[in-house]
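retry 2 of 3: previous attempt timed out while embedding heme C. Reduced batch size to 1 and resubmitted. Inputs unchanged:
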Amino acid sequence: MKILTFAVVAGLALAATQVFAQAKPEQQIEYRKASMTILGRSTAALGAMAKGDVPFNKDVAERHANLIAGLSDLPLTAGAYGPGTDKGAPTKADPKIWSQPDKFKAAYDKFTVAAKALPAAAADQKTLASALGDLGKTCKGCHDDYRSK
Ligand code: HEC
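retry 2 succeeded.
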């Protein structure tokens, strides 16, 4: 029984890997943009709380922070910026992402580090505001260089 369960789970995991491996460029581009949309929404929600435009709520802040941290490096590792994803659907991603992949990865890594630091800061409005400021610099830094207007 245990062996059977393992076989089923392994089979599902393999199927999921293949779905990602076979994702078409347009699917990767959609995923890239959708992940950015979610990052934008959650960052804005945290920003409003950090500034006091809406009342600070620790639980909500932690949920957004955990989402940002968990999502951060996933699109990169899942191939959303991989070879061949520079075209195939409307995109504002700059061609430099594919011509200078190491520099792009460095910009992405800065963002991931800031994103993963967010949950530990989210329980308090002041520490949240500070961590969010650090995160925002990494969003802007990458957009300045790698997102066309
Ligand atoms: C390492 C680079 C990088 C980082 C870091 C980054 N972005 Fe982006 N972002 C991009 C690129 C490239 C695009 C354009 C994607 C496309 O059109 O294919 C984009 C697009 C977007 C969009 C528009 C999505 C759409 O549907 O067109 C939003 C919103 C966004 N980013 C928000 C954020 C926020 C908020 C952060 C920080 C929490 C962030 N981004 C961090 C590279 C980055």
